[in-house]
Amino acid sequence: MKSVYIVGGGLAGLTLGLRLRQLEIPVELFEAGHYPRHRVCGEYLSGQGRDLLVSLLGETPLSQAGARSSLQLRIYRGKASLTERALPRPALCLSRYRLDKLLADAFSRVGGRIHAQTRQPILREEGWVTATGRQPSIREVGWRWLGLKAHALDLRLPDGLEMHLTPWGYVGLCPVEENRVNVCGLFRTREPVPNLIHQWRDWLSGPPGSALHERLRGANWDESSFSSVSALSLHPRRASDQPGVRVGDSLTMIPPLTGNGMSMAIEGAFLAVGPLASWAAGKVSWSECTGKIAQSLDQTFSSRLAWARRLQQAVLHPLGQPIAWNLSLLFPSLPHLLFRQTR
Ligand SMILES: Cc1cc2nc3c(=O)[nH]c(=O)nc-3n(C[C@H](O)[C@H](O)[C@H](O)COP(=O)(O)OP(=O)(O)OC[C@H]3O[C@@H](n4cnc5c(N)ncnc54)[C@H](O)[C@@H]3O)c2cc1C
Predict the structure, then answer these.
(1) Contact 62, 94 (CB under 8 A)
(2) Residue 135 C-alpha to ligand 1 middle, in angstroms?
(3) What are the tens digits of pLDDT across the range 77-94?
(4) CA of 189 to the centre of ligand 1 (A)
(5) N or C: which end of the chain has fewer CB within 10 A?
């Protein structure tokens, strides 16, 4: 049996590694960082990825780690809010600090080899898979995208999940383990933000007078959970236009507003397993394997990426946001419809 080498041990790389090991395929995984660690993420997993994750790890380890289920979502803009809606299916809410560690431990237990704190150059050779996360881009149509996240302790969220639209982006509030609320936002800027280490609380707390500002007034932050990411590329990319096997954000990043990136990382990893297993067993060539994976990734993701792109352009554009908001007031099922299209 041939070995598979995975570069990047985030959600996509770990899921792929664990699933391949469950099929007894030799796997080595290289991760530049360590476990556990905080990452910028809304920590809200919805869509098919949730079921796949449960099938991979089982309900019990996830609930023992403190994973919560959230069904209700309320969307705010300034002080106003849309009627609270139930999501079509509950989302799984667990910090990446816990989730990635859970997956890394499960991978090691079934004989996967992790080389942590090892930044591996990407090799264009047979058996090598890229799962290195986002492909950076300094600017997109003149904007820079900045992602920030931190946990607030002992914050009460009456309605479960909350999404707050702000003049420069959005902030999501998601209840995770141990009475923590993950506060995570995506923001548009023209210029780099040099003083982020002092200013992140202001960015995450929204404009004074808004419901978000009220909610986070006097928040007790876990400073060690703060993380940030910049140079995000939200432009959709096709697998068949890129060499080798890529999964997760290293293939393409869906706008975070959809809350579907983790699901795509997990779904993409599952789609890659069959062809990689056939290649490892010597049943297909590497080029047949990469071709099959690219085809199924493109078929599965192209429609939701196109919808997500339109949604991002409407909701996070200074002119589009009031239009999208007023349409949602007129047609209350609109956010629901868009949510389904990005799954
Ligand atoms: C602001 C924001 C909010 C989000 N909110 C949500 C949400 O609520 N729900 C949701 O589903 N998704 C959300 N996402 C998206 C989600 O976080 C990503 O889609 C998901 O983390 C992708 O997983 P990944 O494994 O592809 O990448 P990552 O989790 O980024 O992992 C990539 C890994 O590769 C490692 N690496 C990189 N280069 C190398 C190298 N050369 N050698 C070794 N290791 C390397 C990195 O250290 C990293 O650990 C959000 C994203 C942002 C930016």
Answers:
(1) yes
(2) 10
(3) 999 888 767 777 889 999
(4) 21
(5) N
Q: Which domain range does residue 249 map to? A: 4-37+101-136+233-341
- Which residue is closest in CA terms to ligand 1's atom 27? 133
pTM here is 0.94
Rg of the chain (C-alpha set): 20
Domain count for the chain: 1
pLDDT in tens, 191-223: 778 788 889 999 999 999 999 999 999 899 999
Domain annotation covers residue 325 = yes
Residue 256 forms part of a structural domain: yes
Name which of 154, 183, 150 is nearest 169 in CA terms: 183
CATH number at residue 244: 3.50.50.60
Taking a C-beta distance cutoff of 8 angstroms, is the pair 233, 191 a contact? no
Show the CA angle centred on residue 130, arms to residues 127 and 135, nearest 5°. Answer: 160
Any domain includes 177:
no
Does residue 9 form part of some domain? Answer: yes
Please work out whether the CB of residue 260 comes within 6 Å of at least one atom of ligand 1.
yes
